[in-house]
Design goal:
One of its GO terms (molecular function) is transcription cis-regulatory region binding. It is found in: Cytoplasm, Nucleoid. Forms oligomers. InterPro entries: MraZ, MraZ_C, MraZ_dom, MraZ_N, MraZ_sf, SpoVT-AbrB_dom, SpoVT-AbrB_sf. Belongs to the MraZ family. This protein is of the alpha+beta class. It has a single domain, classed as Chemotaxis protein chec, CATH 3.40.1550.20. Helix content is 39%, strand content 26%. It is built from six helices and eight strands; from the N terminus they run E-E-H-E-E-H-H-E-E-H-E-E-H-H. Strands 1-7-8-4-3-5 form a six-stranded antiparallel β-sheet. A two-stranded antiparallel ribbon has the order 2-6. It is globular and about 45 Å long.
């Protein structure tokens, strides 16, 4: 389970340090892809395979199923950390998430995945959502939250 929030600077080559706590659980090889809310998702191989299996079960005749599969698979890349614990964020994914070189990024643990945010996007998202967490929780009561 991934938990916590960490800030690191993306270097001039597009690399970010993956916190040691995350590295241990993520494994040697992992997947990066576009995430929802303009962040990036990092998945351990097993979690990615589970998501991929669910996406494969969606009916191809439904346009939204095709769109969701394209969204996740078209930008997905397999990565590994270097000896310093850094991983390369591909340019197309940096662009999608609004992450500039030499900028601070925020890595958040969200149970089965890690999210990578530009600092500004994370702050904006947090400012928007945090005041409404109680209301959000109330709307999810029907699913056991």
């Amino acid at each position: 389970m991934f938990m916590g929030e960490y800030s690191h600077t993306i270097d001039a080559k597009g690399r970010v340090i993956l916190p040691a706590d995350f590295r241990a659980e993520l494994g040697v090889s992992f997947i990066i892809t576009k995430g929802l809310d303009h962040c990036l998702f990092l998945y351990a191989q097993a979690e990615w395979e589970a998501l991929a299996a669910k996406l494969r079960q969606l009916p191809l005749v439904r346009p939204e199923a095709r769109a969701l599969a394209r969204f996740f698979f078209s930008s997905a890349r397999s990565l590994e950390c270097d000896k310093q614990g850094r991983f390369l964020v591909p340019a197309n994914l940096r662009s999608y998430a609004g992450i500039a070189l030499k900028q601070t990024v925020v890595l958040t643990g969200t149970d089965s995945r890690i999210e990578v945010w530009s600092k500004e996007q994370w702050r904006s998202y947090s400012d928007e959502v945090e005041p409404d967490v109680a209301a959000i929780a109330a709307t999810l009561a029907d699913v056991g939250i």
